[in-house]
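USER: I would love a firmer grasp of how sequence relates to backbone shape in proteins. This is the protein in question:
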Amino acid sequence: MINPQQPAGLFSESIPEVWYRELLQTGITFIQIDIEYVDKRHRLDLTLSTRIKDMSRETIQKKIKQGTIQVNHLHVAPNYSIRTKDTITILVQDI
């Protein structure tokens, strides 16, 4: 969750770091990230590539295009600008 009291530029640090391969082993089927507040423009692909440690930005872009990463249950472009009140859903499946 994003806290509106946080200083600008800390948006991506508010999303926990994950290791995708570890998620595969847990049986988790999806991750949902609810965005409470965004203070400036943040690209979806760039933000996720800094938080998902074992997945390249190129792979994240492919997953966005395939629809396994969605915003508000919709297909979006990798350069989508994350907005306040967005919900990011990442389906966890073998790469």
Notes: Residues 1-13 have pLDDT under 50 and may be disordered. The CA atoms of residues 16 and 51 lie 7 Å apart. The first helix runs from residue 20 to 26.
